Amino acid sequence: MKQRSPAMPVEVKGVIALRKALNAYAPDLAKELTAEITKSLKVIQKDARGFVPNKAPAGLYNWEFNPNRKLTAKNSMFRTFSSEGERVRFFPLYNASEIKRGIVYRTGYGKPNAKGFRSLFRVRNMSAAGAIYETAGRKNPAGDPKSKSNNPNAGARFVQQGALYGRKRDGQDMRGRLIFRAWDQDEGKQTIAIFKAIDVVNAKFNKRTTVSSSQAIA
Amino acid sequence: MSNILISLAAEFTGKKAFSQADKAAKALTKTIGNLAQGFGVAFSARALAQYSKQAVMAFVADDKAARVLTRTLNNLGLAFADPAVKTFIADLEKQYGVLDDQLRPAYQKLVTTTGDYRKSQQLLQTALDLSAQSGIDVVSVTDDIARAYAGNTKGLQKYGLGLSKTQLSAMSFAEVLVRITKISNGQAALAAETYSGKLDKLNVAAANASETLGGALVDAFSTIAGNGDIDKAIGKIDFFSKLLATLISPKLFEQAFTGVEFKYGLIPMNKTPLTNRSKSPAGTYARNQAEIKAAAAAKKQQAEMLATNKKTLKSQQDALKLSKAKAIFDIQKIQIEAALKGKISEEDRVRLLLMKAINAENLDDIDKYTKALDAAQAKTKELQTLLDAMGKNKLGNIVSSEFYKGMSEAEIALEKFKESGNLRIAGIGNPVTADFYRGLSDAMIALERFKEAGGFRLAGVGGQSTVTTNGAGGFTDAQNAAKLAAEAAAKAAADAAAAAAAATTVVVNIAGTVTAQADLEKAIQDAINASRAAGNVDALAPKSWRGEV
């Protein structure tokens, strides 16, 4: 197993094969591994959800979701249109509960990315409003005067009211306010816990599959 | 859906996919290779199609260049020379192995500059020699030569002609051309005979074949050229390419038979080659007239160019003169006018006017006053020479001829006496007294002074001296002299006393201030009032004040 800095996503080898083997030959160990990984991911998920404010940041007029107000094309300033001028969907409004629901974890490996890597365990911020709150101000922390937005200084306002946590390294921007903050504050503890769990399960599996141990079991 | 995620661990799985893709690509290549082996003919056809495409491109480019040159000749009134120019370029191409792609633009540049197609041909030949000698491409060389023809020889410096920048600037184009010819003569022909030149010739032939055919039959050309006879190979290439082109193109097929005449409709006979010239007397006349006109135009163009160059040179020189003069006289500019108003000599006036003209950049005045100043300076120099000579040879010797002209001998003698410094006027005193009387006794000095006063006479002559008049008449000269000396001494004493008296200085000191009459009256009145107020009684006071009744 190869590890890099605990602050960065870790590249591992053989975990997919191990899990395949576990699923095929030791389903109980597979479940055990998944349970252990889930525990760690839940810690980050819980922390991230805890960072979601109940109200939208101040100064972002009408971004807050109001269940009593029916949002239409006429009364919303958050109308969005496609390049052809057709309306595509309403701009995502800030809804704390929806954002919290959108912070999830996944233990199954996903599709390979462009570089050929497959994510093994991950925490995601899936909601659109959550993604906005997570990353707003990363690109233009002082606002974007060239922006055609109604509020070109939104980036600066986000940064003023909620600092970005994490860091930018190796071409990856790992800064944010929810899951990245939780990840940053965890300082790699959960990653280590996950790899310990993998090691433990791997050892158990190896032990179980050796001849001597098989004989012992028999 | 947003893609905000943290991947706690990732595994590289792309390698397998990549290797699969790699294998697939290799398999595809192998398959294609097999297909190529299996369908070689088809691939040859494809290659031929590709070559044909290249050939069409080459032909189009060549055709365009030829048309541009033809149009240029037409515009310059040299349309009659178009066939000759084409032949010339084709010959040069074959002779020196330089592609017409280079020769045409080079020739075009020259003919545009000179306006003379024959001169341009000579210059192109020279440019080829210089190009072969220097290793610089013929288009660049031609460009430099064309510039030099127009008077800009800067570009020729890089060819190492052994001429300095100044020399190049000073020399005429004809002189520069002689130098170039002397240095580079025969270089192009020599270069064409080297292996490199032969290869160039082959390239030219190949390129021409490519233009004619659709090109790229390089393998075939190399086979043909294998026997080492390049010229023969070129001939074969030409023939081969034309033959193939004829087979391919109906148009070229038709063109190929334009040189053939079918006698009786069956027997092919060579047609007399066309010279593209009219055989009629009228056509010949028209052609000759066009040539004469073009030659005249070229001559006129050259004359205009020379005149322009001369004018430019003059203006540059003038500008240089002015800038130099300015640098000297700018500081005095303001003072010139003031100085001109003062009392100055004629030469100074000319100098000031010259400075003024320089400041005003008035070239006519500059010339005028420069000449005047030169003349004045020449005269000054002459005068200086004269004065120097006077110092050495005495004035009398130098000025006698002019100065004494028209004078009598007596006047001349008098003038010379004056020049000698011996002239004394009676009563004024003797300028040489100090030296002249040195060593003489008082009596002798008195005698001399008597002589100077004009009172000298021989004893017994009488009539002129008070001494003789008033005296007994029997006095000797010595006695007269003694008496006169005594009188002179007494007179001198009296004069001295009178002078001393006359020299008394009277100093008048005036104290107090000067005031106006009204002020004075007021002051007096104030003083009287003050006196009376103090109890004093003055003469003008009322009688009662004075105790009078």
Structure description:
- Chain A has eight helices and five strands.
- Chain A is mainly alpha-helical.
- In chain A, the strands form two sheets. In chain A, strands 2-3 form a two-stranded antiparallel sheet.
- In chain A, helix 1 crosses helix 2 (27-50), helix 2 (27-50) packs across helix 6 (179-186) and helix 2 runs antiparallel to helix 7.
- Mean pLDDT of chain A is 80; it is low at 1-7 and 213-218.
- Chain B has 549 residues and is mainly alpha-helical.
- Chain B is 71% helix and 3% strand.
- A two-stranded antiparallel sheet of chain B has the order 2-3.
- In chain B, helix 2 packs parallel to helix 4 (100-114).
- The radius of gyration of chain B is 58 Å and the shape is elongated.
- At the A-B interface, strand 1, helix 2, strand 3, helix 4 and helix 6 of A face strand 1 and helix 1 of B.
**Biggest chain contact:** A-B, 40 and 16 residues
Number of helices of chain B: 25
How would you name the oligomeric state of the polypeptide chains in this document?
Answer: heterodimer
Distance between the termini of chain B: 145 Å
What summary fits the major beta sheet of chain B? Answer: 2 strands, antiparallel
Helix content of chain B: over 70%
- What fraction strand of chain B? under 5%
**Mean pLDDT figure of chain B:** 71
List unreliable stretches of 5+ residues of chain A.
Answer: 1-7, 213-218
What gross morphology of chain B would you assign? elongated
Radius of gyration of chain A: 22 Å
